[in-house]
Q: What sequence folds into this?
């Protein structure tokens, strides 16, 4: 059921950090304010629920169910911010550095994003993601208008698990993934939150070669959403990745689709956290 063979399975420690930079046509003090002032940071990046100078975890929230749990490491007088963060609070911890420096015509921001077990494909994804964020920062500094994206169509994330814990073993899978059977096959995907429990029809269930795929009928008449889970072996662990796509194609008003996407993102986050906790309790320390 779980295939870790071939190039997909060979993930080595020591992946190089992702480095991205941009030069903006404003002074370094204005650039620094866009990084540290919560109101300005929210205009191009995300809503902060903490202080860079306080070394306790807090959130950068994007308003669509996505967020990072951030733990500041240091802020220096020469305009450097160093922190760790975890996507959805369950993803692998990454070490981030923002450095702002003056240039002849403005200022330069350099970003370094380090995860020593990051697979090569994720390196390019991170570079593309940071390039997009820096372009939004540039647009905000040039115009003064918000350039923050409204919400993402896809839900995705990952959680690291012990190398020999099989998350797709049926006796374990149904303990952390919020699905239920009709007596014959998985038939329902459950969302339980402050709005109360709700079940959604699940179809096209498939488990093969280290992946689980299925569709969830979120609306009665709209297009179905597609979900995929995959296990990838790293050097000393395995990474469970999940994605759930199709949230802008539900045939619903944007605000309703957004609200549903936010509820499902919370359900996936809780499922990943449950898998991590089950693995922790199942694997003897050593």
A:
């Amino acid at each position: 059921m779980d295939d870790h063979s071939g190039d997909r399975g060979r993930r080595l420690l020591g992946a190089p950090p992702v480095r991205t930079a941009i030069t903006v046509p404003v002074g370094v003090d204005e650039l620094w304010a866009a990084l540290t002032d919560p109101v300005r940071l929210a205009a191009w990046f995300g809503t902060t629920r903490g202080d860079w100078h306080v070394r306790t975890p807090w959130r950068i929230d994007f308003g669509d169910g996505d967020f990072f749990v951030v733990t500041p490491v240091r802020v220096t007088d020469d305009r450097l911010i160093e922190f760790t963060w975890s996507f959805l609070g369950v993803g692998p911890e990454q070490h981030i550095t923002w450095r702002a420096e003056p240039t002849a015509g403005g200022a330069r921001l350099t970003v370094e994003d380090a995860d020593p077990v990051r697979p090569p494909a994720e390196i390019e994804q991170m570079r593309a993601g940071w390039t997009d964020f820096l372009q939004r920062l540039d647009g905000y500094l040039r115009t003064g208008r918000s350039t923050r994206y409204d919400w993402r169509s896809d839900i995705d994330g990952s959680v690291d698990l012990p190398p020999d814990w099989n998350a797709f073993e049926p006796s374990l899978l149904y303990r952390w993934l919020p699905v239920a059977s009709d007596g014959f096959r998985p038939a329902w995907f459950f969302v339980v939150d402050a709005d109360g429990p709700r079940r959604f029809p699940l179809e096209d269930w498939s488990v093969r070669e280290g992946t689980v795929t299925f569709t969830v009928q979120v609306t009665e008449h709209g297009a179905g959403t597609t979900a995929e889970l995959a296990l990838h072996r790293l050097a000393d662990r395995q990474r469970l990745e999940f994605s759930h796509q199709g949230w802008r194609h539900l045939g619903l008003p944007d605000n309703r689709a957004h609200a549903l996407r936010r509820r499902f993102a919370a359900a996936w986050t809780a499922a990943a956290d449950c898998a991590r906790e089950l693995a922790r309790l199942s694997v003897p320390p050593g």
Remarks:
- The longest strand covers residues 196-208.
- The domain at 7-143 is CATH 3.30.530.20 (Alpha-D-Glucose-1,6-Bisphosphate; Chain A, domain 4).
- The chain has two domains: 7-143, 155-282.
